[in-house]
TrEMBL record:
Record-level Gene Ontology MF annotations: N-acetylmuramoyl-L-alanine amidase activity
PANTHER family given in the database record: N-ACETYLMURAMOYL-L-ALANINE AMIDASE, N-ACETYLMURAMOYL-L-ALANINE AMIDASE AMIC
Cross-referenced Pfam families: Amidase_3 (PF01520)
Cellular component terms per the entry's GO annotation: outer membrane-bounded periplasmic space
Name by which UniProt lists this protein: N-acetylmuramoyl-L-alanine amidase
Keyword annotations: Hydrolase
Taxonomic placement: Bacteria, Bacillati, Bacillota, Clostridia, Eubacteriales
Domain MurNAc-LAA: 75-189
Record SUPFAM superfamilies: Zn-dependent exopeptidases (SSF53187)
Segments traversing the membrane: none
Domain of life where this protein originates: Bacteria
GO biological process: peptidoglycan catabolic process
Length: 201
């Protein structure tokens, strides 16, 4: 279970896998013909959570509804409850196709291994193009980083699951939603040497 609600308190599991569904509420992220990134990221985050929990893993979600959660709030939550790993899930914007994963510009380990493991598994599940593991921040190739990678105190990566404006990427996302969730879960667990039970997918 993600967390247990009790009067006046919320209890989070220590050392859980933190899944961050990008955007939320008025911060829709990329939009294409009525399709909103915030909805796709929540769909995949919930599916990854389901897969991980069937594998016996504890999961912490930065949001599990259409909520406006600030960037700092997301990493603060993961840091406060000492998450074992932070995986931020997004869909890309602009022209392009395929999947890419971003890691902090210093290319730390096991962050880079985490990203490579997830991307390898996603490619097996079926993506239009493998755009590779990238470092830093796409709009500034110096020492800039996505805040979720910069502020998290545990291994982290930001996964861009195809381009919202690309019909084929959207179709792949819809058709392979569960396969993508299994791939992401398998990549996370592989990074930390946790056996993945194929009978529980």
């Amino acid at each position: 279970m993600l967390f247990i609600r009790e009067p006046g308190a919320v209890h989070y599991p220590k050392g859980a896998i933190c899944l961050d569904a990008g955007h939320g509420a008025e911060y829709t992220g990329a939009v294409y013909e009525g399709r909103q990134e915030k909805d796709d990221t929540l769909r995949i985050a919930k599916e990854v959570r389901n897969v991980l929990e069937r594998q016996g893993q504890k999961v912490l979600m930065t949001r599990d509804g259409d909520d406006n959660i600030g960037l700092k709030e997301r990493t603060d939550l993961a840091n406060r409850y000492r998450a074992s790993v932070f995986v931020s899930l997004h869909r890309n914007s602009g022209s392009g196709k395929g999947v890419e994963i971003w890691v902090e510009h210093t290319q730390p380990e096991p962050d880079t291994t985490l990203a490579n493991n997830i991307l390898t598994e996603l490619e097996k599940a079926g993506i239009q193009e493998n755009r590779g593991v990238k470092f830093g921040y796409r709009e500034n190739h110096s020492n800039a980083n996505y805040s979720v990678n910069r502020e998290s105190e545990m291994p982290s990566c930001l996964v861009e699951l195809g381009f919202m404006q690309n019909e084929v990427d959207n179709q792949f996302f819809d058709d392979h939603l569960h396969d993508y969730a299994v791939a992401i879960a398998r990549g996370i667990m592989k990074t930390f040497g946790i056996p993945f039970d194929e009978s529980k997918i």
